[in-house]
Amino acid sequence: MNWESTDHNLKMYCKNYCKILSKVITSAKKMYYSNKLANSTNKPKTTQNIIKTITNNKKNPNNISLKEIDGKTTTHRQTVAE
């Protein structure tokens, strides 16, 4: 389908379809996470994992392994920070 189509009925149909699809997806996610939490034995940890999943938060370790400074490779954190 081309969004620049001149058929008004087709545009309205697609717009309504997208709206309904978004609502169905949102409801399915709510049901999935509610069931996951309801069946959990460790609710705080499960809640934390659900929040991490939804917000897409992942731990980013601050590993500064190697840095080249003045032609020399160093792993010393203070030197790299300066």
Task: Describe, in plain words, how this protein is organized in 3D.
- This protein is mostly helical and 82 residues long.
- The chain has one domain (8-81).
- Helices cover 60% and strands 7% of the residues.
- It has a two-stranded antiparallel sheet with strand order 1-2.
- It starts with 7 loop residues before the first helix and ends with a helix.
Q: Keyphrases for this structure?
A:
single chain; 82 residues; mainly alpha; two-stranded antiparallel ribbon
Describe the global form: flat
Percent of residues in helices comes to: 55-70%
Largest sheet: 2 strands, antiparallel
Strand order of the largest sheet: 1-2
Summed up, the helix count is 3
Determine the strand fraction and express it as a percent band.
5-15%
Q: How far apart lie the N and C ends?
A: 55 Å
> Regions with pLDDT < 50 over 5+ consecutive residues?
none
Q: Provide mean pLDDT, rounded.
A: 80
SS class: mainly alpha
Please trace the helix and strand order, writing H or E for each element.
Answer: HHEEH
